[in-house]
Amino acid sequence: MIDYDALMTREFPVIEHSYTEKDTILYALGLGLGTDPLSRSHLRATYERAEGFGALPAMVNVLAYPGFWAMQPDTGLTWQKILHGEQSLTLHAPLPAAGTLLGQTKITGIVDKGEGRGALLYSERELTDQETGQRIATVASTSFARGDGGFGGPNGPVKPVQPAPEGTPDEVFDFKTLESAALIYRLSGDFNPLHADPEVAAQAGFDRPILHGLCTLGVASWSITEALADGDFSVLKHLELRFTSPVYPGETVRTEMWRDHDVVQFCARVPERGVVVLNNGLAKLG
Q1: Is 15 labeled as catalytic in the residue annotation?
Q2: Which of 67, 107, 247, 255 is least buried, going by the fewest C-beta atoms within 10 A?
Q3: What is the mean pLDDT of residues 8-21?
């Protein structure tokens, strides 16, 4: 059972994460970029000598991460029943193509939804450049601990969610993921066998291994800047969304966008199955 006070004051070690241009390129390849080797947009993320080469902003999701700490027995969490519900990232400075970042994670809130209804767990990670001290990004997550409601904790406040976009989108961008996408993306740090092992996927109720949710997020974030910023992914300053359904490697991620100047509402769906996979999305460009 969750011990509210102990979990809220849980101390996480500072994670030091050094990465190279090779890691930056591998992350982009894991999203599926590079399928068009003549595209300047693809090369900006996959070729270190390309004009404008740099790290994709969504790469902050895989840097200086403390791992799946909910598996540790002293958390009181039923880790087998935890789902990744929401994710956001805010860039305070451009992410270097190579360097060393320090990551400090903290729990910012726990909401008890009641017995049989689970709990919401809010966490946040600050990323800082080790050499300069520059704050690079803030990454926040909402996890749904389905097996841990009714521990006697507060029933709020619940973080507000962006409304789902409505009407006809201003832009639509299709990106076909690779059949091997999950096997490549996992090399950026998420080795959950659900994304690689057919037997594990079957035990979880899936026909085959599914794509990482954060990979789908990366595809959508790149699609937004590709469609609305002429491929200049450095303009992305903020992104937030809710995960609603998994993607299978090889499927198309269709990102639908509603733009109001530099603010973009969006969702993403898989047209092959008619399923919305990301919703309540908001991006800010600058």
Answers
A1: no
A2: 67
A3: 97
